[in-house]
Amino acid sequence: MGGKHSKSKESPFFSKPWREINWRDRQSALQYVKDYRPQTDGQQLRILLHGPVGAGKSSFINSVQSALHDRMYAQALVDNTSHNCFTKRYTTYKIRKEKTGTFYPFVFNDIMGLDPDKGIPVSDVKLALKGHVKEDYRFNPESALSEDDQFYNKQPTNNDKVHVLVCVINANTLSQMSEKTVEKIRDIRIEARKLRIPQVAILTKIDEVHPEIKENIQNVYTVKCLKEKMELFSATVGIPMNCIFPVKNYESEIDLNSDVDALILSAMKHIINFGDDYINFNNDQSEG
To answer: What domains are there in the chain, each with its CATH number?
Structure first.
């Protein structure tokens, strides 16, 4: 046939969001996180963040605190001057509640980044999962924590143990992640699975993935390439899609944004639910 046919370009967007989020109801998600209380008095939900150097672990902690306090917060120190790991010590971040002088019943642990050749020893992450790493332990890429070290916790309590493992990944550089780093993430994931610890992935820097997301973060679930990155990460390390949450951390902003908060609080709501289910399951097993 002699006529010319122009091949139409496939749209880079879905016709409707593939995951729903209520952008206008930030307050509901905020209240859910604020109202969380474990069933057991004195129980603390411990959230351990791990991932490659510069993925945004410390920035995520700050962003959660910013959303909860309704102002910019920078308790976890962040360094933008180099690609070297800025976090050197095992640090627990508590979030103080407003007015009451008490703390939220969940805490974050930030650790040294996973570097292909240096970075935190994988065995140290495994020890942290079991609650064997004491506060302020200084990570050493050359040697792992040993049982005779003063920072080795020989008798961890339930509050010392990790209840949710969160892998933080830079969505923009996901495809460039080295095979060695991927192997370390898989290794840590297998250990967490043995311990039945729930696992979540946070994809940061989503505004750098596509101009439409940078223009309007509400496009996060309509841009096809971001979903493809999430699917690639899921297939690579084995974390299910419904446990992967894209967020934008607060980094250059000086004022809060309700859409940025909505994604952060949505992720936190699921992290809390997964961790609380794990705590309750363990309590039920010990009582049975």
So the answer is: 44-287 (3.40.50.300)
What averages of pLDDT result for each successive group of 10 residues across the chain (288 residues)?
54 93 88 94 96 92 94 67 60 87 93 87 96 94 93 96 97 92 96 97 96 96 96 94 96 91 96 96 75
Buried b (16+ CB within 10 A) or exposed e, 9-32: eeeeeeeeeeeeeeeeebeebbee
Query: Residues 233, 239, 245, CA angle at the centre, nearest 5°?
Result: 75
Q: What is the DSSP letter of 74?
A: -
SS3 85: coil
Q: Which residues contact 102 (CB under 8 A, 6 or more apart)?
A: 96
Contacts of 226 (CB under 8 A, 6+ apart): 171, 203, 206, 209, 210, 213, 220, 246
Q: What is the pTM of this model?
A: 0.91
Residues found in the chain: 288
